[in-house]
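haha ok so turns out i had the wrong file open the whole time. this is the CORRECT one, sorry everyone. sequence first:
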Amino acid sequence: MMAASANMNGGNHTVELIVRGASESAADGGSATSASEEITPLLTQSERPKINIFSVYRSRRKPREQVIKVSETEISPVSQFVLWVWNGSSYSGLICMTLSSVTYFIMEVLSDNFTAQSIPLFETAFARCTVTVILSYIWLRRSGQPIFGATQPRNLLVLRALVGYLSLLSFIYCIQRMPFSQAIVLSFTTPIVASIMARIILQETLKIAEIGGLACSFFGMLFIFQQMLTTQGGLLKAEDASNINLRGSQHMYAVLIGLFSSISGGICYCLIKAAAKASDQPVVTVLSFGILASPAAGICTFAFEEFVVPGFYSLSLMIALGTLSFLAEVLLARGLQLEKISKVANVQFIEAALSQLWGISTSRVAPSFGRLVGCLLILISVSCTLFLGPQKETE
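then structure:
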């Protein structure tokens, strides 16, 4: 290594030349060389291909998109729709409850238009509960879920089955002892009671908009059945005085039983929600109810009613209605599991509106101002509930 230096003193110039050997330069510059070797990769980063977050995102996304495209080609559109409804969006709870109400409406249409025999109520409940048990068992077996659920929510499942069957039993008694329109109006107080019970038992918030929606829907029910209620009241006043007191006491007793059915039904909604969340499987709640309700309804059939052997046509219709009842109950349990009770309970009133509109369109029900106003109130209330969307509060 050579180094040169120059000094200027007056006019004299001195030039100094220093020559070093290779060994000395290596000894003195060893640390510099090692440092340069460590710094070299950092300095040569610009020579490598540039990688940023966008290039990494594209490189990772391409194979994932290929996997998704392959899976989408393998799944049918019907399966995609079912998966989307079950757990595909934040609106799944409201959509499941809407489909449950529509399924109950379809059951009503089928039972009205394809009835072949007069089947007692307890026998009908026994057939539907039996089909529910079989389909629930098949569902849980095929999905690999435990039949009786986890050990923690079993107490909730037992309570759900007991309270649910008491509600069903009292509702059947109410239908047998009261005019059908009055029994239906009492049964539709269940969503209101369920919202109140959810506030007390589950500590769910009950907002003013939700209270207004429930009140609007219930007033719609009163408008729909106003003519029937006043007509039946007039018939009662025209009867003999000796029978008025007897029928009045029986009617009041039936009304109290109907209110008990609504209260127990509202508590049952809270138990379904709690058990479905604890077990993470809403079908378990349906199975637990069927296991108790099926033998109990069979016993009541032979104890309080005369058993009717159904024909092939009636048996096929009962199986079809039992299958639809199972789907409606599963969707109801899923809706309660995913969403606030006060929101999904208001959606249930759409069944009454659809039933009245179907009756008017098929000329089975005479159109009237009260019915049209009631259907409009229910449709507006349910539409507002769906427009406001799911509950945004974090639990």
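The CA atoms of residues 17 and 128 lie 111 Å apart.
again sry for the mixup
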